[in-house]
Write a structure and sequence with these properties.
Blueprint (H helix, E strand, L loop, with lengths): L1 E5 L20 H17 L3 E5 L15 E3 L4 E3 L11 H8 L5 E3 L11 E4 L2 E6 L5 H11 L5 E6 L6 H4 E3 L4 E4 L13 E4 L11 E3 L2 E5 L3 H9 L4 E4 L2 H4 L10 E3 L7
Parallel strand pairs: 1-2, 4-5, 7-8, 10-11, 13-14
Antiparallel strand pairs: 1-15, 3-4, 6-7, 9-10, 12-13
The structure holds citrulline.
Citrulline binds next to loops.
């Protein structure tokens, strides 16, 4: 597996915020947590390709929003926040050796944080960041490969994957106040602990799960069900409204199996 990451920007304190109040962010601490995140990805089997920090791009550590990588193609987004559009060039260049690229075009917008891929099913949050035109563009890029794209409702949080993520191809972790459970009735749903509403974002790394240490109650529930969960502290990145999936693009390394 390859994991593309991007160093924490020195200007992260000027990040976009939608549902959170601005709090001071300790850049050195954010960097240390991000390095720990990368080490965890390596331990779980990823080769990390770290892009350099972008001084004038406060949110650039959150590479997930900039592309959605499939086995067949990488869909390069036009992020919903205008302040984030300059992030695209470096991420697209990093993906180009590994996948054919499809670039979104105006006026559609889409953030990768709104795209939940579970096997051949793709759920896309309709949010302030992701427009119906953006969802259509994703659909026309990937339906030829047999993916089924479905729009999903989101309320009260930034992205669909703030509200729901996959534990495996049959099971999703959900905060039902933010995602609509009935839109995912084909799946087994596990609820976040009520005391941990922001705990629905978990990253699949092969057969393991990478999770923020801020959610011990939900983690205990997952471990009791047999999931292997690696917990790391990402509190400084959380102040920028980012979670564990946001900080990487993880995909199969095809160069290993030509
Ligand atoms: C933003 O508002 O765009 C960033 N401050 C946070 C992005 C988090 N990304 C994600 O959930 N995929």
């Amino acid at each position: 597996m390859i994991a593309i990451t991007r160093e924490v920007s020195p200007s992260i304190a000027a990040c976009e915020l939608t549902h959170l109040a601005r709090e001071p962010i300790d850049v050195d601490r954010a960097r240390a947590q991000h390095a720990e995140y990368e080490r965890a990805l390596e331990r779980l089997g990823c080769t990390v390709q770290r892009l350099p920090a972008a001084i004038d791009m406060p949110d650039s550590v959150f590479v997930e929003d900039i592309a959605v990588v499939f086995d067949e193609v990488a869909f390069v987004t036009r992020p919903g926040a205008a302040s984030r559009r300059a992030e695209v060039a470096a991420v697209a260049a990093a993906l180009a050796p590994d996948r054919p690229l499809v670039h979104m075009t105006m006026p559609g917008t889409l953030d990768g944080g709104d795209v939940l891929v579970v096997g051949r099913s793709i759920f896309v949050g309709r949010t302030k960041r992701t427009s119906d035109a953006g969802i259509e563009q994703l659909r026309s890029a990937v339906e030829r490969f047999g993916y089924l794209v479905t729009a999903a409702s989101v309320r009260g949080c930034l992205h669909l994957k703030s509200a729901i993520t996959a534990l495996d191809n049959e099971t999703l972790l959900i905060n039902r106040r933010w995602a609509a459970a009935e839109e995912f009735e084909a799946y087994q749903l596990i609820d976040v602990d009520p005391a941990e509403p922001t705990g629905a974002n978990i990253a699949r790394v092969g057969t393991n799960l990478l999770y923020a240490s801020a959610f011990p109650r939900t983690r205990e529930q997952l471990e009791r069900r047999g999931y292997s969960v690696t917990a790391i502290e990402v509190s400084e990145l959380a102040k920028a409204e980012g979670a564990v999936t946001c900080c990487s693009l993880i995909f199969a390394d095809h160069s290993q199996h030509p």
